[in-house]
């Protein structure tokens, strides 16, 4: 493809993408293809001769679109959103053109420097305490990771390294007998180290512990506490670990859990950890990582910063939120902040002669390869920069407030039909969790679950919307999220109308 052919192909492609967004509403939300559908439509081998773009482009609509579930569809109320927007798409376009594996500053200084700057912008916009800024008092800073799962794994690696460094004496090599004993002691200590989370924490915390080969314990959170981790809950878990000879080194706290969008009690967590090691924050402290993958986006609004008391996260060690969920940047843009970047560098800096260079050796630059698990990295900050500049903070606030108010309108509509629905949690951060009301007094859990399941299946079968479900203490419940960029009040009204009609039907049946 030469420049002229690219110009024509790109123009045709952009036109098609615009039409896709403008007509999204006419498609079903969820793909209905059978597994293996694509193999039947494509040749078994790559073509020997190159094909014209027009032929390739035609196959996008004909062969790929049937297998696409439309995450930007206004009727997409499942999971959490996976954002996109025109400025973000433009950022991806430039990023592809400027392709590089920008792991060291010298590999493209602009890639590193823009990332540092836009993550500082973001930290300030979210109201994070100054300790998470690259220019802050604790030499903190932000780095873009591929996903919240990658961020929590990275945090846990750094936490494990910090804990071992602080609580054991490093051995020189070759090992003397005494040193060997110490190495053995480290192995024993490792086997006692435990990462804590709650029964509502995202599964990525358990997966990180699994990858690192450390113990994992989920603290039970209760409905009466809004499914949030409390001071007492954490204190009891710490005491239990101590009694069992286990050594907690990491806690995953959440701002906006996946099932119900609960927020752990940051003040309570901080208090429970006060007496854990002396002095507080001294050697052997528990690293607290705040996973705000979805709801962190809402912190662009000062009222959310105040309600969540976000300043308290300055007492913790790391914070992560996905702009690619609710902040109009397309996947992947997980923004991970640490209070002291040295914690990452100490855990993850592994040198190899081929990567040495004058700038790195001078120590004046950031080499992001030392803040992450992979070596290579893309120019992801461009799309963040474009989105922040195109929407402005005010534009982002407006969008978040609109999502939240649609969530409230949805919950109010369900409350107005309390004969049909019971709200289980929310609305919280544009997420409402509900189930069918009891048909008659004394209806069993199984009966209510079966009816709610029937409602869920029938509504999803319309193809016009997609809802996901969860289970809370044995209760099957439906989640409806109103945070997709294209969703408007009219789509919420349509969702309510459909839910009411189907619920009436199910109740009658
Ligand atoms: N944390 C929370 C609270 C989530 O809801 C999710 C996914 O929805 C994740 C982590 C995992 O996100 P990722 O796909 O970026 O790893």
UniProtKB/TrEMBL annotation:
Q: Which UniProt keywords apply?
A: Decarboxylase, Lyase, Pyridoxal phosphate
The protein depicted here goes by the name: Aromatic-L-amino-acid decarboxylase
Give the family, as the similarity comment puts it.
Answer: Belongs to the group II decarboxylase family.
Enumerate the cofactors the protein uses.
pyridoxal 5'-phosphate
Q: What Pfam families is this protein classified in? A: Pyridoxal_deC (PF00282)
The uppermost taxa in this organism's lineage are:
Eukaryota, Fungi, Dikarya, Ascomycota, Pezizomycotina
State the species of origin.
Chaetomidium leptoderma
Some GO term, biological process aspect, for this entry: which one?
carboxylic acid metabolic process
InterPro entries registered for this protein in UniProt: Aromatic_deC, PyrdxlP-dep_de-COase, PyrdxlP-dep_Trfase, PyrdxlP-dep_Trfase_major, PyrdxlP-dep_Trfase_small, Pyridoxal-P_BS
SUPFAM superfamilies under this entry? PLP-dependent transferases
Domain of life per record: Eukaryota
Chain positions found as N6-(pyridoxal phosphate)lysine: 325
GO terms under cellular component? cytoplasm
Q: Name one GO molecular function term.
A: carboxy-lyase activity
């Amino acid at each position: 493809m030469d420049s002229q052919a690219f110009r024509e192909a790109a123009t045709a492609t952009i036109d098609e993408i615009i039409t896709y967004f403008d007509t999204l509403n006419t498609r079903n939300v969820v793909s209905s293809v059978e597994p293996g559908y694509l193999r039947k439509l494509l040749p078994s081998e790559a073509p020997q001769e190159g094909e014209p773009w027009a032929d390739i482009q035609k196959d996008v609509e004909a062969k790929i679109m049937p297998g696409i579930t439309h995450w930007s569809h206004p009727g997409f109320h499942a999971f959490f959103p996976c954002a996109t927007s025109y400025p973000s798409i433009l950022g991806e376009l430039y990023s592809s053109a400027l392709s590089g594996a920008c792991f060291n500053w010298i590999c493209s200084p602009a890639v590193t420097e823009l990332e540092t700057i836009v993550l500082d912008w973001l930290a300030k916009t979210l109201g994070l305490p100054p300790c998470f800024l690259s220019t802050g008092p604790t030499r903190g800073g932000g780095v873009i990771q591929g996903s919240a799962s990658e961020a929590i794994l990275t945090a846990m690696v750094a936490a494990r390294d910090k804990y071992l460094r602080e609580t054991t004496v490093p051995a020189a090599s070759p090992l003397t007998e005494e040193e060997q004993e110490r190495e053995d002691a480290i192995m024993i200590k490792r086997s006692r180290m435990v990462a804590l989370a709650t029964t509502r924490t995202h599964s990525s915390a358990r997966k990180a512990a699994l990858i690192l080969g450390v113990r994992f314990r989920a603290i039970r959170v209760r409905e009466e506490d809004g499914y949030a981790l409390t001071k007492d809950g954490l204190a009891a878990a710490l005491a239990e670990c101590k009694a069992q000879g286990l050594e907690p080194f990491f806690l995953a706290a959440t701002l906006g859990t996946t099932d119900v969008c609960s927020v752990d009690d940051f003040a309570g967590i901080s208090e429970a950890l006060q007496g854990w090691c002396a002095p507080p924050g001294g050697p052997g402290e528990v690293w607290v990582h705040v996973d705000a993958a979805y709801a962190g986006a809402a912190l662009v609004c000062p009222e959310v910063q105040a309600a969540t008391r976000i300043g308290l996260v300055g007492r913790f060690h790391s914070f992560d939120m996905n702009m690619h969920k609710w902040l109009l940047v397309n996947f992947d843009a997980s923004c991970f902040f640490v209070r002291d970047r040295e914690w990452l560098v100490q855990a993850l800096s592994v040198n190899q002669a081929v990567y040495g260079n004058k700038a790195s050796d001078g120590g004046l630059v950031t080499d992001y390869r030392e803040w992450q698990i992979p070596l290579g990295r893309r120019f992801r900050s461009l799309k963040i920069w474009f989105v922040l500049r195109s929407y402005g903070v005010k534009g982002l606030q407006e969008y978040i407030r609109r999502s939240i108010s649609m969530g409230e309108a949805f919950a109010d509509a369900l409350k107005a039909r309390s004969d049909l629905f019971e709200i289980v949690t929310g609305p919280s951060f544009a997420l409402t969790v509900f189930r069918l009301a009891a048909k008659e007094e004394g209806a069993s859990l199984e009966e209510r679950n079966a009816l709610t399941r029937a409602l869920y299946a029938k509504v999803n079968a319309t193809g016009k919307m997609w809802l996901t479900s969860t289970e809370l203490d044995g209760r099957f419940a439906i989640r409806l999220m109103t945070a997709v960029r294209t969703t408007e009040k009219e789509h919420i009204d349509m969702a309510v109308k459909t839910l009411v009609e189907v619920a009436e039907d199910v109740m009658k049946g």
